[in-house]
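Comment thread on ticket #2218

A.B. wrote:
> Attaching the input chain for the structure job we discussed in standup.
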Amino acid sequence: MGSYGSYVITSSVPSPDSDPHPGQLLALLGADVLGRHLSLRGHRVRHVRYCAKCPCPPPCHDLPALTAQARGERVQRSFLSLWQAGVWEQRELPGPRCEPCGRNLHETEVRGRCGYCAAPCNGTYCHMCERPQDAEHLAALRCVRCGQVPVRTTTRRLVLPLERWRERLVAYHAMDRAQAREPEAVGGRRQRAVLHTYLSELLGRELPAVPVSQEDGHGVPIPLAGWKGHVLDSWFSGAVGYAEAVAASLGRTGQWEETSGRSRVEKAPRIIDFAGVGQVFSHAVLRPVVLLALGAPELPNVVVGHEAARPPAGTPSAGRGTPEEAPDADALRFHLCLTGFGPEWGTASARAYADTVATVLTGGLETWTDTVLDLLAEDFGSTVPAAAPEGPPAAERGELMRRAERSLAAGSFSLQRAAEEFATVVDRAVADLQPLRRLRAAGRYSAYEARLVAHVELLASCAVAAGPLMPGWSAFLTGHLSIGPDEERGRMRSPAAGGTTRLVPAGARLPESVPAYFHEHMQVP
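C.D. wrote:
> Ran it. Output below, let me know if you need it in another format.
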């Protein structure tokens, strides 16, 4: 590969306004996996994290720190520029009021059931179906502070009428979708298809007017006469923080250190934005409209949602609970990639996690590793034979990196697809251990030797390919197999060479065994 690109990957931290749940980690996990994958492929990557209060980059990004006052002033300037441009409207909106608490309630201060899927949610977005909510129409409405049923009232609000921006929003996502057809994005478009199905359904009806003002004692004050005691909603502060964080990061892209000996073609950095559970409307609709209104040139090229986190319609919500044991970090990463987590963690989720560990990781990956090293130790003194790899594992190895590249390419990124393909490779490898033993028992030593070498190479390739998904286990096994970082990076950059270049050369001496990395979890009854 002779050309390398630049990427800015953005993800938000979990919002303090929403109920905490494991699904909020998916945006950070997806951004981390894509960043690792692109870095191993030789691309230059910058990960920008942000929140409703301010940009939140890692210390190495050296973005300027702002005081709360300075941040508030920047948000107010952006608000005023849109006010002068006629973006905001004043409307009288219906809303809830809690008489026992003596106050009008913000959308995040009520709980009820979604008017579309009946899942529990607040008055902003449903974490199950991702649709925007209206506190006026939530079923079983309650105040989160006292649990009482609010009464209906009318309040003065400033709103962003999204319907006005329909044409520009449709045009933006049409461009976004076209960019997903770049060569690197061929195959694995399920993630993009789910997002665009969601957008098509949303755009099939009138878009809502989203309030930007609220009555509250804290927050960035609205800098308009007659609006004392009203503050700007955190979603707008988050959009401004996002724009400033990305702009500051893009201003530094030319300062990335070049790597000697590489041929690079400089292109404008691609911006990949990750939305967690319950954030798709904000990331794919609300924020792009604000950025368009502000005239920001730095809109995401791709918005990545998480289809695995949204259960099929009608799926009942699990009750809250805790897993029986603390999870392994890599096991939890892999399980999140494979299945996604909805807004609730309960008995069903804990059982599914234990099943992933037992079937794919301990019963699959570690059983396969132990068997291959045992056979190599018993029959070849733990020294890799000189035979060329043959049999189904050799063919599987030839496709592994290409499938990983398709699943983790920026334009077609899918955590679930990448994890599913990895699990499928492990399942097939474990199933092939029986034919491998039959060759050994039948005395077909040449075929047995070539097939065992194929298993060694496939195992090594899995250890390299799993780097973005399970970095701890990948480093653990590549270390035991004596695969150096340069070999890993070279393999990731040249997936087409996966069928010809051996990671573990003939004559290499491998350990007789490796310690267990994952531990099984108690099955939840």
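A.B. wrote:
> Thanks. Noting for the ticket: The chain has a mean pLDDT of 79.
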